[in-house]
Amino acid sequence: MQTPPETDVHAELPRVVPAPFRDRTAEPVRVGVGGRLTLAGADPEAADWFTRSADRLHGLRVEAVRENAGVRVFPAADPAEFAAVAPATGVDPRPVPGADERHALEIAEDRIVVRAAGAEGAFRALTSLVQLLTVDAAGGVWAPRGTVVDGPRYTWRSLSLDVVRHWFTVQEVRRVVDLMALYKFNVLHLHLTDSQGWSLESRRWPELTRPRPDGTRRYYTREEFAGLVAHAAHHHVTVVPEVDLPGHTGAAFDAYPELHGDIPPIHPRARFLHPDSEAALGFARDVLEEFAELTPGRFLHLGGDEPFGMLHDDYVRFVEHTHRSLRATGKRAVGWQETARAGVLDGEDVLQYWIGAPDEFDAEGIKAQVPPEYHAVVDRAAESFRISPGDAPAAVRAGVPVLVAPNSRLYLDRSYADACADPAQENDRERLGLPAYEPITVADTFAWDPDDTAESAAPGACVAGVEAAVWGETMTGFDDLAFLLLPRLPGVAEKAWTRRRTEWAGHRRSLAAHRAFWDALGFGNHFRPAD
């Protein structure tokens, strides 16, 4: 019998791989030879994912066969087979809700059996398996012996990607989806509009995506976006696009100054769509309809954050309009936590909680750094942050589920407080991340639990799920995205997937086993913290 590899087989993995397989004493068994595995019974999407991932991550050749396969996928004969794992909780983001992701994975000598409640369960089981496999120099394929029943903690496990402040190509976003699938995320929240640009083609308002002076394009055509949605769906990831209204709309005003109507902005740097402007109301209705046309999923994000300079009553009226327009498209709304102030969200919608301590708004500090003409805007911004602790509780009282995404832990554009193991990355560590945010260690990012956040922000909340976010202000390319996402993203995945509390020491050891995966997926500039 061949000797198992000396490294990696026993390595602990993030608990997106089930707990029994984290045991460093688990016996490695051979499950394939000649750098080859055979697979039977998987649906086309799961088979394609497993085949491509085994090749990219391990150099393995996976062949589909009808019988005598090394890896066999069976439908569960009885849902009670998964009774050891509680069904996922939260809000189901999928176009057709209700799919069961629970599964059983059994690994023995020359035999791997997957039993799944459905296609998504089989997909998640094969995702666990591809993380567990290792290959020795002679082409022997190994995995730790064990059996487990597993399933997710939350039905909504999300990453928000800003493609406005830094635009990512279609191929780059597809790479992000591949990484998300490896860690069992199932929602890609695309932040597509902001003051810096508009990243989705509009046929009703074509000047939003006019070519740049140098002739380059920084938006997705409708056909490209549909392709991204299809690629994500192939990986059981639902795209939730965001059109951010009524603030964060500088790019819209640059393209169409008439959106102001007869109402001048409080300041050229504080522009927002006003409910007394008929042009603004029509614009909001049009773009929401366009986004909805391209969204197979049930949810569309209407923004609503940071309405700086806007009077409360005006903000309420505009959110009422956007919510009414969005619902008319047949979609349900996701709104940043400020939208709770309008009182229009209900149990069919989702509130996204994001304003978390210790990043309180320092109005006086900001006033000291800006000209006096900005001070009125700063005061209104300060008031918006001052009342923010009441947002999530108001939503809970209205029966609105809360998507937990606290900036204090889950905004991954936050600088690293860790020292660099690789001195060549020191410039990246100093350059990347919003300067206004206090740097945080990878360990501190991990030392967080969704239930803790929900209880402190909104006692009694129905947690819709978990979302990490990465914003593009400091990024200059895809390597910067890799640096900010990794190694923090697997920790978020673990908290969204498993109910068990995990110690940081074990998780830190586990991350080392995944660095080769990140390289293989094109995320080679991942941050390397010093131990």
Automatic annotation (TrEMBL):
<dbReference type="InterPro" id="IPR015882">
    <property type="entry name" value="HEX_bac_N"/>
</dbReference>
<dbReference type="Pfam" id="PF02838">
    <property type="entry name" value="Glyco_hydro_20b"/>
</dbReference>
<dbReference type="InterPro" id="IPR025705">
    <property type="entry name" value="Beta_hexosaminidase_sua/sub"/>
</dbReference>
<dbReference type="Pfam" id="PF00728">
    <property type="entry name" value="Glyco_hydro_20"/>
</dbReference>
<keyword id="KW-0378">Hydrolase</keyword>
<protein>
    <recommendedName>
        <fullName>beta-N-acetylhexosaminidase</fullName>
        <ecNumber>3.2.1.52</ecNumber>
    </recommendedName>
</protein>
<dbReference type="InterPro" id="IPR017853">
    <property type="entry name" value="GH"/>
</dbReference>
<feature type="domain" description="Glycoside hydrolase family 20 catalytic">
    <location>
        <begin position="154"/>
        <end position="499"/>
    </location>
</feature>
<dbReference type="InterPro" id="IPR029018">
    <property type="entry name" value="Hex-like_dom2"/>
</dbReference>
<keyword id="KW-0326">Glycosidase</keyword>
<dbReference type="InterPro" id="IPR015883">
    <property type="entry name" value="Glyco_hydro_20_cat"/>
</dbReference>
<comment type="similarity">
    <text>Belongs to the glycosyl hydrolase 20 family.</text>
</comment>
<feature type="domain" description="Beta-hexosaminidase bacterial type N-terminal">
    <location>
        <begin position="14"/>
        <end position="150"/>
    </location>
</feature>
